[in-house]
Amino acid sequence: MKKFYLSIALLSALAALVAQEPSVIIKITRGDMPKIAVPDFRGTGGAETQMGAFNDTLFRDLQNSGLFDMVAKSMYPLQVPQRPEDFRQPSRAGASSGGLWLSDWASPPVQTNYLTIGYTAVQNGTLVLYGWLLDVSQPNLANAQILGKRYFGSVDETGARKVAHEFAADILQHFGGKSLFGTKIYFVSDRTGNKEIWSMDPDGSNQKRLTSFNSISIMPAVSPDGTKLAFTSYVRGNPAIYIISTDTGRRLYFYNQVASMNATPDFTPDGQHILYSSTASGYAQIYIADLDGKNLRRISSSRAIEVEPKVNPKTGNEVVFVSGRSGPQQIFKMNVDGMGVERLTNGEGEASNPSWHPDGQIIAYSWTRGYATGNFNIFLMDVATRHFDQLTHGEGRNENPSWAPDGRHLVFMSNRGGVSQIYTMLADGSNVHQLTTQGRNQTPVWSR
């Protein structure tokens, strides 16, 4: 049973396409990235024990954004002000090793453009962060202060991470970025002995198990509003679709039509329907149904296995899917009514795991182009032009890409370290970070 589904999910969707040349699809400009110094904040009045979690979270949020050139902490001056009033005024030409002049941070060896300072304290049983963002090129504090704000959280590690995420979000917003704080990554892990659905924050923290089916639960999909999670499970024998509340874990009703397989679900952008693959008619084909599984209708029609439907999040009118109708598994596109079928990938190697960019113009996908069968890498494709760009390059098996809501980050699975784990990267393939370490982890999806 397990081998049957894996062959369906990874080898069972086949199609062919028009050959195209590689092209840069998403470019992350680095030459003019502003430099930012993020020294460790200190805690007072009972907040000291939470500062490790706070400082780690703030630094990683800014680093992982891909918007900044992070200044190495070894370059920082000896003294780090906690508040704007700790700086000596007026600023002066030349630098010192003290760190109490704005010019100390703008001059060698630091040479940063921006500086974060602040501290935390416990007041009336609440963790309070006082955070500032300064432009150190300015000659005086009145012009240097970009951001100065208080943030509130619980007096524990969770509260410390919360205020760090919120401070980082405000900094990113100033630079035109979008914080991923509040989004979730859902994934499959076997760390407890069975494949269950788990969730975590985008930095890999706060990992929690959501299902306890003691079976095989795989291929999660999250609703547009983030309140529902659909996935495939073998808990009753044949693979079937289950839906749970992300808040409570409560199982929601879904009618599975009689079939040896109902699998690979995805939500429509309005959150009112689910597309999935079913063998009800013999070959695995694509169906669309209401959220409870009723009012279903078949929208694909071929004598080949067709799985992994993904609906365009922008238009709701286009569906990409994996099919074997032309030979080795390829990615196809069709209208949501099943008309207008086109092959997207060019038939070279095997392609699977399509994921729409939030703008509805680009897909990320897995492809064996140029590598041995089954050795997938992550690619991007401009759907209109068929131009593609390769993001990973032979570092093990790289699969199941899923876009972050900001359109700049991807989460994916890789076995580059010997065991399948979850990673994130920027959309140009840089800034790769491993999020999981326990057990084997796969098929991640980022909440929209």
In terms of DSSP E residues, the strand content is 25-35%
Poorly predicted residue ranges:
1-20
The share of residues in helices is 10-25%
Number of helices: 5
Features:
30 strands, 448 residues, Rossmann fold, 5 helices, Neuraminidase, mainly beta
Can you tell me about this structure?
Helices cover 11% and strands 35% of the residues. It has 448 residues and is mainly beta. The protein folds into 2 domains: 2-27 and 180-446, TolB, C-terminal domain (Neuraminidase, 6 Propeller); 35-174, Rossmann fold, CATH 3.40.50. The strands form 7 sheets. Strands 1, 2, 3, 4, 5 and 6 form a 6-stranded mixed beta sheet that branches. Helix 2 (51-64) runs parallel beside helix 5. It is elongated, with a radius of gyration of 24 Å. Mean pLDDT is 91; it is low at 1-20.
Write the layout of secondary structure elements.
Blueprint: H1 2-11, E1 35-37, E2 42-44, H2 51-64, E3 69-70, H3 102-106, E4 114-123, E5 126-135, H4 141-144, E6 145-153, H5 157-174, E7 185-189, E8 196-200, E9 208-209, E10 217-222, E11 228-233, E12 240-245, E13 251-252, E14 262-267, E15 273-278, E16 285-290, E17 297-298, E18 306-311, E19 318-323, E20 330-335, E21 342-343, E22 351-356, E23 362-367, E24 377-382, E25 388-390, E26 398-403, E27 409-414, E28 421-426, E29 433-434, E30 441-446
Parallel strand pairs: 1-3, 1-4, 2-4
Antiparallel strand pairs: 4-5, 5-6, 7-8, 7-30, 8-9, 10-11, 11-12, 12-13, 14-15, 15-16, 16-17, 18-19, 19-20, 20-21, 22-23, 23-24, 24-25, 26-27, 27-28, 28-29
